[in-house]
């Protein structure tokens, strides 16, 4: 739970102290229709169950109080909630003006109610016009608002209303990760957003196994079997009423032709709803033997009906949200739910312009069973929401704050801005992965792409070109001006010609390869190529510990051992570009064999491959695993297992690591006596495991004049990419390379 990770226990304690130990949070829950009550009811039950923390006031308005829609306020009373206030706010009419007048009527009546109740917080759900009136009234009367299901995306005017309520609300409870990200993008305070899931899922996920046959018989008849009926629920689309009425006619025609028992629910109170009811009556749906037309079904029973239906059809949000929890097939018609996250059980018929198209969708979907989806919740939303409510500090300023992103100054004539956005394309050719990144002058990795490194020369070069072209195109969108391409690769490299002379065994078919020419021709940019160890040293010189240091050495500890030497601020390549092959410094005449063919190299002791080799030996002798360790049967033995065993007290594993650290330390001593640097930077995944041993060996074995050297671990997150970028950035900004 992202919210509760950020919220410490200490803060909760302070909130309780500020609010007073006996203060109860007075919560007003306002419900407008049967749909929002299904989401609010679980929260209301939770609040009612904790009277020591909360006082609950219930306000009922909207279609709850209309006989044509089933007088659904009665189910609130049946749930044993005391209704504090009933507000008749619906202005009857068949056009958009009636909705506007209903909002106005609610705005006239709500202030008196809120003045009497004086709630600490009002809970508002969703995206209905009634909810907009509630949020507007509460905001103008300085009442805190908790909005349920903000940040979601759908079709019609509902989107605009939902987002308008978001801007009025002080706190937000959202159902999905995408909704949370939308709220953050809308500049809402992340600390006031709770990703809880949909409250209705708290009931849904525990409901399916209850007795359902009696419910099916009550609503659809004695002869109906599970998975052999349809539930239809369609509402008018207020931004295109005429088209939605036509689509409803086609839907009913298709259902009549499909000839299955169908439960049809009356539409919501919206502009166009009366016309939809007239269409039903014109087609004789209320008297048709295959149809049951009803104004309302209690939510608990409705859950059972959709859970065991052969299909649900219409444009209700229930179809794309709640029904997924049961894997029931859904046909979503039109644009009303465009943008909603859905499970694989939903088939969209966006432009249902013919009866045959809808009929074909019914034939495809009816009777299927899909995997259950929990996109919108895991059944634990209410406990999270109650905890969130308890954490609200009423002493905090009521005025909400928006978290706007930084706004750039006018940069049309600003030369500093041009310098800040100068960037390089950095390419890292590893034994496993091929990576390309856009790196800014300040060392920020703006964008990174990763693909598996192909095994053949042709495929590898083709992929490099493809990834570089893609990154160069994206650089325009992120306001970066690419100055050139820097490539870091294993093996021996001629940086003057941009040619890989001889590669490591980890990168196959990669010798005598001209990288500069094809990439420069394709991108029309200058290209620099160098060994990965040299690139790591350049990264330290520009962005890391080596910045401003005249003489230093970088050692890379990873799959192999490599490095780079900077002397008098310049990188040393050597006469045949073989300088700084530090992994092949010999520290023992009769040591283990190295991949280079020699014996006793640092790499033969301290590389990841060497540690893996020793780990396999221990494992084969059944001496690797100790208490607290476990390995799957087919899991390959790795250096990580050896390190874990050493940490857990395996003396043999610990001895191998000490030997490896000593070998690396002896290599560093040789470097000190040869180059006399003032700094040694250990880089790579194993650096942290070796640094203490290296320092100890230096103090024991180095000449007294060399012992003052600093041995540190690199703080760069990605030295290979940063070093490749510095090939470009140092040269193009007239730094020495």
Automatic annotation (TrEMBL):
Zn(2+) binds at residues 584, 594, 596, 601. Residues 53-390 form the UDP-N-acetylglucosamine 2-epimerase domain. Pathway: Amino-sugar metabolism; N-acetylneuraminate biosynthesis. The keyword Transport does not apply. One of its GO terms (cellular component) is cytosol. InterPro entries: ATPase_NBD, ROK, UDP-GlcNAc_Epase, UDP_GlcNAc_Epimerase_2_dom. Its EC number is 2.7.1.60, 3.2.1.183. This is Bifunctional UDP-N-acetylglucosamine 2-epimerase/N-acetylmannosamine kinase.
């Amino acid at each position: 739970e992202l919210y509760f990770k950020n919220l410490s226990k200490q803060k909760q304690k302070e909130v309780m102290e500020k609010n007073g130990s006996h203060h109860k949070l007075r919560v007003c829950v306002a419900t407008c229709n049967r749909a929002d009550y299904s989401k609010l009811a679980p929260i209301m039950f939770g609040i009612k169950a904790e009277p020591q923390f909360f006082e609950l006031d219930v306000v009922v308005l909207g279609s709850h109080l209309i006989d044509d829609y089933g007088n659904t306020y009665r189910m609130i009373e049946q749930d044993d909630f005391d209704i504090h206030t009933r507000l008749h706010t619906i202005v009857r009419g068949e056009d958009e003006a009636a909705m506007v007048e209903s909002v106005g009527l609610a705005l006239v009546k709500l202030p008196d109610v809120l003045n009497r109740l004086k709630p600490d917080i009002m809970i508002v759900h969703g995206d209905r016009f009634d909810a907009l009136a509630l949020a507007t009234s509460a905001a103008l009367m300085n009442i805190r608002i908790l909005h349920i299901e903000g940040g979601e995306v759908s079709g019609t005017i509902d989107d605009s209303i939902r987002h308008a309520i978001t801007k009025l609300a002080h706190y937000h409870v959202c159902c999905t990760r995408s909704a949370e990200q939308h709220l953050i993008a809308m500049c809402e305070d992340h600390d006031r957003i709770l990703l809880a899931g949909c409250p209705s899922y708290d009931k849904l996920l525990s409901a399916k196994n209850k007795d359902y046959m009696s419910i099916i018989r009550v609503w659809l008849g004695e002869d109906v079997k599970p998975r052999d009926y349809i539930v239809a629920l369609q509402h008018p689309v207020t931004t295109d009423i005429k088209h939605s009425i036509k689509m409803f006619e086609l839907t009913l025609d298709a259902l009549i032709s499909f000839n299955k028992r169908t439960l049809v629910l009356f539409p919501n109170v919206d502009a166009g709803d009366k016309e939809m009811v007239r269409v039903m009556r014109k087609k004789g749906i209320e008297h048709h033997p295959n149809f049951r037309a009803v104004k309302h079904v209690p939510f608990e029973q409705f859950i059972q009906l959709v859970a065991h239906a052969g299909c649900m059809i219409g444009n209700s949000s229930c179809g794309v949200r709640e029904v997924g929890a049961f894997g029931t097939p859904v046909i979503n018609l039109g644009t009303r739910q465009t943008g909603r996250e859905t499970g694989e059980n939903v088939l969209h018929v966006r432009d249902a312009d013919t009866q045959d198209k809808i009929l074909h969708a019914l034939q495809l979907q009816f009777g299927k069973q899909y995997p259950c989806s929990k996109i919108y919740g895991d059944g634990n939303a209410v406990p999270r929401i109650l905890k969130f409510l308890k954490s609200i500090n009423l002493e905090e300023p009521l005025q909400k704050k928006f978290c706007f992103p930084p706004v750039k100054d006018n940069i049309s004539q600003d030369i500093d801005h041009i310098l800040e956005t100068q960037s390089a394309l950095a390419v890292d050719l590893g034994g496993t992965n091929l990576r390309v990144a856009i790196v800014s002058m300040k060392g920020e990795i703006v964008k990174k792409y990763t693909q598996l490194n192909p095994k053949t020369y042709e495929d590898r070069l083709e992929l490099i070109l493809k990834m570089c072209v893609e990154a160069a195109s994206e650089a325009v969108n992120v306001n970066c001006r690419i100055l050139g391409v820097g490539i870091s690769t294993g093996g021996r490299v001629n940086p003057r010609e941009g040619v890989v002379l001889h590669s490591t065994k980890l990168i196959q078919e990669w010798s005598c390869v001209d990288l500069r020419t094809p990439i420069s021709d394709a991108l029309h940019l200058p290209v620099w190529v160098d060994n990965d160890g040299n690139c790591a040293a350049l990264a330290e010189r520009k962005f890391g510990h080596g910045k401003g240091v005249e003489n230093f050495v970088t050692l890379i500890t990873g799959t192999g051992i490599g490095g780079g030497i900077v002397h008098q601020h310049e990188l040393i390549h050597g006469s045949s570009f073989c300088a700084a092959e530090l992994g092949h410094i010999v520290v023992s005449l009769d040591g283990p064999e190295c991949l280079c063919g020699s014996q006793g190299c640092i790499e033969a002791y301290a590389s990841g491959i060497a540690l893996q080799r020793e780990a396999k030996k221990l494992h084969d002798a059944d001496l690797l695993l100790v208490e607290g360790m476990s390995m799957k049967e087919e899991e390959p033995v790795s250096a990580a297992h050896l390190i874990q065993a050493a940490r857990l007290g395996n003396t043999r594993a610990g001895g191998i690591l000490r030997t490896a650290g000593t070998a690396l330390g002896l290599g560093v001593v040789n470097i000190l006596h040869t180059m006399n640097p003032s700094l040694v930077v250990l880089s790579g995944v194993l650096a942290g495991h070796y640094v203490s041993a290296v320092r100890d060996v230096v103090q024991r074995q180095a000449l007294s004049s060399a012992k003052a050297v600093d041995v540190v671990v690199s703080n760069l997150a990605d030295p290979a990419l940063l070093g490749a970028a510095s090939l470009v950035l140092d040269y193009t900004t007239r730094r020495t390379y």
